[in-house]
Amino acid sequence: MKNKKILFIASTGGHLNELLQLEPLFKKYDSYIVTENTKSNKSLKQKYPKKVNFLISGSYTSFLSKILYPFKLFINCWISLYLIIKVNPSVVITTGAHNVGPMCCLAKLFRKKLIFIETFANSTAPTKTGKIVYKFADVFIVQWESMLEFYPNAIYGGWIY
């Protein structure tokens, strides 16, 4: 199974932390990690040489970042297209959030299996990304049983931690 390619993608912070809990799968499959290019994520390049790629960090917390966000998202779409073609994964696994949207859409467009794991941080309300991706993900996993109310066809997988 080592030759089966899996692309793991998450935005920085808690979403990436959750994704890294799947590290045993990184060794089992030919795995690639995609996350945002932030100072805190640079060490991933040393831990997983040639297996880590970065998107432009796309937060939209300030007025200026809200203006720049559409441009960053556009560039991230092109980076995601490049990576889906270059890596050619069989499966894309993500824990969200906003910067993973283009990769999720491209995974479906290129007929890749898409697995979405809704974040542990939300136990009473769905995320924006989750609500969108739920409609077309091949497998949608929730970490709280209460989330099945919002995602009735999801799989309750329990906590990723």
Could you walk me through the main structural features you see in this protein, from its secondary elements to its overall organization?
Strands 3-2-1-4-5-6-7 form a seven-stranded parallel beta sheet. α3 (44-47) links the parallel β2 and β3 (52-55). It is built from six helices and seven strands; from the N terminus they run βααβαβαβαβαββ. The radius of gyration is 15 Å and the shape is globular. The chain has 161 residues and is of the alpha/beta class. The chain has a single domain (5-121), classed as Rossmann fold (3-Layer(aba) Sandwich), CATH 3.40.50.2000.
Counting structural domains, the number is 1
Average of pLDDT: 94
Strand content: 15-25%
Query: Order of strands in the sheet with the most strands?
Result: 3-2-1-4-5-6-7
Instruction: Identify the CATH homologous superfamily.
Output: Glycogen Phosphorylase B
Order of helices and strands: EHHEHEHEHEHEE
Low-confidence stretches: none
| Number of helical regions | 6
CATH class: Alpha Beta
